[in-house]
Design a protein that fits this description.
Residues 4-148 form the N-acetyltransferase domain. This is Acetyltransferase. Keywords: Transferase. GO terms for molecular function: acyltransferase activity, transferring groups other than amino-acyl groups. It comes from Candidatus Wolfebacteria bacterium GW2011_GWE2_44_13. By secondary structure, the chain is of the alpha+beta class. The chain has a single domain, classed as Aminopeptidase. 28% of the residues lie in helices and 35% in strands. It has a seven-stranded mixed β-sheet with strand order 1-2-3-4-5-7-6, with helices on both faces. The protein starts with a strand and ends with a strand. The mean pLDDT is 95. The structure holds coenzyme A.
């Protein structure tokens, strides 16, 4: 049985973080770090974790505490070579466990990203809103939220 583990990334891991983001996300459905400065901001302002399979980095996942009781799930990418193995589900479950005391958890995703939408709905998230041109690239996003 392969072992999936999570390792907190720091600013020293910036090159590995950029590499996994670049490898995994080439789609109008996912807005990855535009440049090094962007990646630096993510590492400074979010809790970024590498997802490892048997010790090898196969993805990254992030969240950010917006205010007491409110967390935002800001990123999730899996290396295409390792997709479809249930790793994203494990990453979501890891984040939900870290954030189990939060009253509200939310995220945004592209309305065409059905894999992601179905996954979050299965954990009790609801589709709360549609936002046009969310990142300024002309693409919309759905707001998904878990309120408890
Ligand atoms: C979305 C993403 C994170 C999913 O990662 P993954 O590890 O392949 O996902 P999982 O293997 O855990 O599968 C998740 C669900 O998608 C389904 N799925 C996986 N690969 C699929 C495929 N090629 N076609 C259709 N469904 C698929 C699985 O059946 C699973 O559903 P289930 O658990 O209900 O059976 C990954 O595709 C990715 O990195 N995409 C680019 C970045 C992105 O869009 N991130 C999300 C932003 S919010």
């Amino acid at each position: 049985m392969p072992e999936i583990t999570f390792q907190k990334a720091t600013i020293e891991d910036i090159d590995a973080f950029i590499a996994i983001e670049q490898k995994s996300a080439h789609s109008y459905m996912y807005s990855n770090c535009a440049d090094r400065e962007d990646a630096e901001d993510e590492l400074k302002n979010c809790e970024v974790y590498f997802i490892k399979k048997d010790g090898v980095i196969v993805g990254s996942t992030e969240y950010q505490i917006k205010e007491p009781g409110h967390a935002y799930m800001s990123g999730l990418v899996i290396d295409p070579a390792f997709q479809g193995q249930g790793i994203a589900r494990k990453a979501i479950e890891f984040k939900l466990e870290q954030l189990k005391d939060m009253k509200r958890i939310d995220l945004v995703t592209h309305p065409h990203n059905s894999k992601v939408i179905c996954m979050y709905l299965s954990y009790g998230f609801i589709i709360e809103a549609w936002k046009d041109n969310y990142y300024g690239d002309g693409q919309p996003r759905l707001v998904l939220a878990l309120n408890r």
